[in-house]
Amino acid sequence: MPFTFHSHSGQFCRHAKGSLEGVVKAAISKRMTVLGLSEHVPRSRPQDLYPEESDLSTNDLHQAFGSYVEEARRLRAQYADQIHILIGAETEYITDTTIAELKQLRSQYDLDFFVGSLHHVNGMPMDFSPELYEKIVQHCHGDRGEMFRRYFDEQLELLQQLQPEIIGHFDLIRIFHPYSQDIPDPLLESEVRKLALRNIDYAISYGALFEINSRAWKKGLRDAYPQRDLLQEILQRGGRVTISDDSHGEQDVCMYYDRLLVYLHEMNITRLHYLYRNVDGAVQVRVLDNATAHDFWTANRLT
User: d(Cα 39, Cα 117) in Å, to the nearest integer?
Assistant: First the structure.
């Protein structure tokens, strides 16, 4: 019974591929039984458009999001007898006004869940390219520790204001960090560490699920998001975890889930959690125990 609550399609995301229906069909073919759709929320400032969106306006993004929700509802109804679909969105946090926009968006479209993610620090995109990542470092006076501290401070603001059901790639800030003996890991810096643990404790306090995100391996990182020392902190503090492929098209569905199983075993994770939408529309958290997960993966080999 694999599942994911973090997925994108080329139909509604410029850096993904294929159609939303293609993602749903791929999930069914992988024998996925629960699928959370989570296209990116629209951005409202022209300066926040990515280079790949140079021909679009912010109004285009808002219209596309409405079309996404409409198509997701169609697919949920059409494939209801084959897969359980939840309709959500992946958040942004760029400026102080972002939070109010996200609250309005969730209410307007009656979304099932949020994947609480940051893709910016100081209003600047951090995961689009190494070049833009380094611009943030420069903006932080060359202090990578300061960049990481600002990331976790902005993440806390998002968590407190929105309380997203899923914590998206908790430590995405490490995506382009040039790990080497000459450049230490900022996540080992005491102040950065303190802020990360503060955020973990807050997310646990309101019942969030931390995704173990396999897309980190596509970026060449050693661990999934979150990296193993932070994941261990989450587990020791009683945090609940789920899994996601952060797919960007049908070709990515269940991407690296074989490796993810090894990661779960290495971390001694014996219980996973997932969201489920009841017949009355209420979303609840359900539990998948390790034996059930092991039986499924052994039988179906989704690699």
Answer: 12
65: domain CATH number is 3.20.20.140
Tens-binned pLDDT, residue by residue, of the chain (303 aa):
689 999 999 999 999 999 999 999 999 999 999 999 999 999 999 999 998 999 999 999 999 999 999 999 999 999 999 999 999 999 999 998 999 999 999 999 999 999 999 999 999 999 999 999 999 999 999 999 999 999 999 999 999 999 999 999 999 999 999 987 788 889 989 999 999 999 999 999 999 999 999 999 999 999 999 999 999 999 999 999 999 999 999 999 999 999 999 999 999 998 999 999 999 999 999 999 875 555 555 544 443
pTM: 0.95
Cis amide linkage into residue 125, ω under 30° from 0: no
Neighbours of 132 (CB within 10 A): 16
Domain span holding position 161: 3-300
